[in-house]
Amino acid sequence: MNDDTNTTNDDTTNDDRTNDDRTRPTDADVLIAGAGPVGQVLALLLARQGLRVSVVERWARPYPLPRAVAMSHDVQRVLRQLGMGAELDGMLEPWGLDGQRFSFADGAGRTLGESEYPLESESGHAQMSGFSQPDLETLLERRVRADLRIDQYRGFSLDGLTDDGNGVSVTVRPHTGLAPVPDGAPRTLRAAYAVGCDGANSTVCSLLGLEMTDLGFDRDWLVVDVIPHSPPDWLPYACQVLGPGRPTTLVPAGPGRRRWEFMIMPTDDQESVDTDENSWELLKPFDIHPGNAELVRHARYTFRGRWADRWNMGRIVLAGDAAHQMPPFTGQGLNSGIRDAANLAWRLALLARGESDDRLLDDYSAERSGQIARIIQDTVGLGRLICMTDPDECAERDALLGGSVGMVHEVRQNWTLRAGTLQDDGIGGRLGLQATVGAGARTGLLDEVIAPGSPGSFLLLGRDRDPLELLSPAHRTAWKRLGGRSAHFGPGGLTDTEGTYAAWFKRLNVSVVAVRPDFHIYGGVRTPHAVDALVHNLSERVLAERTVS
After folding, report:
1. Which residues contact 361 (CB under 8 A, 6 or more apart)?
2. Would you say residue 17 has pLDDT above 50?
3. Sorting pLDDT into bands at 50, 70 and 90, what band is 23?
């Protein structure tokens, strides 16, 4: 632990205040800087586990314009455990309905390849769905405001933070959103832990002085969001037009919405790129114009690929864009941030209850940074192909891609966790399966049947008998400390209505799996009687008292 970390935007330090703060009661178990989707989801996950949460955000209300447009299956599962299923159903558009495909085309319009996103996944939801981020943020804001365990400080910016080893003291000031309020009186908030979810220009990351690994990928693009007045049946469902002309992307962006992304070329008038006039001009070849569509937004972005080398320092942690930024070519930016929140929430809950120690945050950093590095490397690799404009390089690329004409590539984007709070048994780090099960007269997806609206629980899932019955008293106590529950198939348990779980257990070659609250597998055992060892290993890794007799 890095004790007595004191960082502030001022050059002064009030030692008396810091000493007082050591014994001051906390305002919250966790303070979150940033009320974007990552910060809001983290706040709701923590509150569901009984923690008190403070959220500090400089903007008075959620940002009203589109940004992220793609939601992955595993992220949808995280949101649905918060009881948002009915609202999500109305705002999501699964990619790939009715056989819709994504195409790659050369500059002349010749199709070089096609891909499709399956409508099923390990999480029980479509691999990827389009959505409008303002719809999601409105839903999250409503849920946060209604939760009595969450105090939200909108209109305040974080100005400094101090980790004294016993908690974190945060100085905040009134803020207009664009700048601090002149002479605004500062106030101090105190929490056991603090999380920086404050975006790509993170104040928390800057105050901690954390370094970034940067892949050196910097490309400027214009992002244009449109609502057609009627379904644009003449357009492809989704396509990537490649160079040597202007690389251009078209994707579905939620029900009734489309997004274009145009690479900004050196020959463009840089002063007029990000204007209504230029946006309509770029949309002309697609027969999109003011007479048949509404121009919702246009924004110039620099696409980058980088991540923090270290995600935690003492009791202060990073998540979301504060820890990583990536180009949009695989649709994983916001999804990765929500995965951060799900991975971090159960750890902070155990820490706040005194059941673990801060080494659990080291595992968080190792797990998330390792996975993020692979996602960004893959995304930047794809981006370098998409952004090519040299004619000879483009011809070579097109010849390579054209070799798969007539084939349809199935897109399944799953990056397993590799190092951290995992058992090294070949299955630790994979996503746990969610499929249809039965319980009495009820049939539904696993989460809906065994634990509706109950995030934060470890799960022992048995192939044919209840693992809990096989635990020794000591390990049953350890399992209870973890907030664990159990479920199984067979007599007295769940029904594997489609045979999906039988095939899954057979493929993994296990009879019991331990699934973490973020739906990743901790590990498994081949025989039910080895479940004591499974819980023992998990307890040793997670609980503050590492040894269970």
Report:
1. 312, 317, 347, 351
2. no
3. low
Q: Residue 536 CA to chain centroid, in angstroms?
A: 30
What residue type is 123 in one-letter code? Answer: S
Q: Which of 116, 118, 90 is nearest to 256 (CA)?
A: 90
Spatial CB neighbours of 505, under 8 Å, sequence gap ≥ 6: 463, 511, 513
Which amino acid is it at 50?
Answer: G
Is residue 184 pLDDT above 90, yes or no?
no
* Peptide bond just before 182 cis, omega within 30 deg: no
Residue in this structure with the two tokens 């096989």, named with its chain if needed: 470
Radius of gyration of the chain from its Cα atoms, rounded to whole angstroms: 24
Per residue, the 3-state secondary structure of 59-71, as one string, reads CCCCCCCCCCCEE
Q: Which residues contact 412 (CB under 8 A, 6 or more apart)?
A: 118, 121, 127
User: Which residues, 6+ apart, have CB-to-CB distance to 137 below 8 Å?
Assistant: 36, 37, 40, 62, 63
- Residues 6+ positions from 389 with CB-CB distance below 8 Å: 243, 244, 245, 247, 265
Q: How confident is the model at residue 181 (pLDDT cuts 50, 70, 90)?
A: confident
Q: Using CA atoms, how far apart are residues 39 and 195, in angstroms rounded to an integer?
A: 8
CB 128 within 8 A of CB 71: yes
Number of H helices, E strands in the chain: 14, 27
Q: Which residue has tokens 């999601």? A: 136
Q: CA separation (Å) from 156 to 24, 31, 35, 490, 525?
A: 22, 13, 11, 54, 49
Helix (H) or strand (E) holding 204: helix 203-208
Task: Say what angle helices 133-146 and 37-48 make with each other, to 10 degrees.
Answer: 30
The residues near 187 (Cβ < 8 Å, ≥ 6 apart) are 156, 171, 172, 173
**Sheet with strand 238-241: strands edge to edge:** 324-325, 293-308, 212-228, 258-263, 248-252, 238-241, 102-105, 111-116, 408-410
Contact assessment for residue 367 and residue 417, using Cβ atoms and an 8 Å cutoff: yes
**What tens digit of pLDDT does each residue of 481-514 get?**
999 999 999 999 999 999 999 999 999 999 999 9
Task: Specify whether the CB–CB gap between 68 and 334 falls below 8 A.
Answer: yes
DSSP 261-274: EEEPPTTS-TTTSS
**205 and 211 in contact (C-beta within 8 Å)?**
no
The structure tokens listed for 25 are 């009661």
Query: Could you read off the pLDDT of 143-165 as tens digits, one per residue?
Result: 999 999 999 999 999 999 999 99
Q: Which residues contact 63 (CB under 8 A, 6 or more apart)?
A: 36, 134, 137
Residue 540 is encoded by which pair of tokens?
């040793």
- 3 state DSSP class of 509: coil
- In angstroms, the CA 35 to CA 59 distance is 9
Looking from the CA of 448 toward its CB, the CA atoms found within 13 Å total 17
